[in-house]
Amino acid sequence: MADHNPDRIVLWPGYFNIKLSRKQGRRVSKDSAVSDPTLDTLALAARNVGLTKMKREADTPHPKRASQKEGRLWLSKKDLTATLGTTSKEETMQVIAKKWRAKQREMKEQEVAAKKAGPKTGDKQARSQRKQVKAKGPKRQKKKKWRL
Fold first, then answer.
1. Averaged over 34-51, what is the pLDDT?
2. Are 77 and 68 in contact (CB under 8 A)?
3. Helix axes 89-117, 39-49, angle to 10 degrees
4. Which of 12, 23, 75, 110 is the most exposed place for a label (fewest CB within 10 A)?
5. In degrees to the nearest 10, what's the CA dihedral of 97, 101, 102, 105?
6. Where do the structural domains in the chain lie, given as residue ranges?
């Protein structure tokens, strides 16, 4: 584990995980939390907010969740001040979380719209229709009339 560096703050993907409770380590509200956060998506969300100076450490376990090697993201306080106007870790997490959640919702809406629209014109594989083969079972027999 690296020594404490007062010029940087550390963010863990678990801080933004909607599946975790506050006791388990979530640090943002459920309205701002995302499902299945990873280090790469956290870095992408931080980049979308405008942060450029960051360092990723993959496969680093959080002290509270030692069995999960989720990784961590180091952010420069100078970059935070220049971009967001704050060095507060809480404000930084809130800004990143809101942007991240909005992006995740937008992606889900696009997926739903694409699924609803159906396959594209040139996509032969998706457009192909399978002929349904009727199940061959015992043929229906005509009722025989009894003759005496």
1. 93
2. no
3. 100
4. 23
5. 180
6. 8-117
What are the tens digits of pLDDT across the range 59-95?
899 988 888 899 999 999 999 999 999 889 999 999 9
How far apart, in Å, do the first and last CA atoms of the chain sit? 97
111: region left, alpha or beta (phi > 0 left; psi from -120 to 50 alpha): alpha
- Contact between 55 and 49 under an 8 Å Cβ cutoff? The reply is no
Of 41, 70, 44, 76, the C-alpha closest to 57 is: 70
8-117 maps to which CATH number? Answer: 3.30.56.30
- 65: β partners: 62
Residue type, 119: P
Paired tokens of 14: 């678990």
In this structure, what is the dihedral angle of CA atoms 120, 123, 127, 133, given to the nearest 10 degrees?
-160
